[in-house]
Amino acid sequence: MAVFQGTFHSFALSKRTNVDVLLPTDAEPWMRRDNEHYNRPMKTLYLLHGYSDCSKDWLLKTDIAQIADRYNLAVVMPNGDNSFYLDRPATGYAYCRFVGEELPDFMERTFGLSRKKEDVFIGGASMGGFGAEHTALMYPEQFCKALLFSPAVLIDQLAEITEDGEGTGIANYAYYLTTFGDLSRAKGSDADPAYLIKKLKQEGKDWIPFYLTVGRDDFLIQNVHRLRDFLTEEHYPFVYQEEDGNHDWYYWNRHLEEAIRWMLDCGEQK
Hints:
This protein is 34% helix and 19% strand. By secondary structure, it is an alpha/beta fold. The chain has one domain (2-263): Rossmann fold. This is Alpha/beta hydrolase family protein.
């Protein structure tokens, strides 16, 4: 597995930013032999980290390198800071545009990675799970499927966060105000997955199938249950896995290969 770690100038972010890239182009002959995944073009997964993490966390804390080798999968892991991968008015804060447009363009120019919808996927954990969902809904023409590991869908809680309160225990009011804008108006905005899903339906655009998973001891489980129930009511295409586990890399790593097999349509979960 070839690993590239570098920086490049992002116009969307108005700064140089880090990105880690896995390319299975140096896979051993025995790995390629009789492996159906090497009889097709290489696929690409954009994999987003969570709050307080960075582009290297998926590499350091999961088996993504070995899995990518096994399935002929390029993996692009950008640095999303603590942005929730949203676009906001401030200069240098176009994180959704960065992931949905600029980064794939750069990867195509630099590594020749495919931009065909059927070859491109997106996923993430926690804040990155929200970012993967949001980016897929904002750019449905770009991505084939999305993998959501314990996505931090906080939209129903934002209006309850007050300036004189304690925030969420993770971040304070000022952070959420900067990230989501007017918290009383976040629901029904482009930061609201339900709003985006209904908007795509009204516009007759494709829905991106989701793989959604959460551990039973995850502090976000009620948030994920609300998302699951909404997707069910809307007849949105998704598969759901809930097992013993917490909001941590142990749980996400345990489900990573299963999610990728579903993503590539090579397992029972379809």
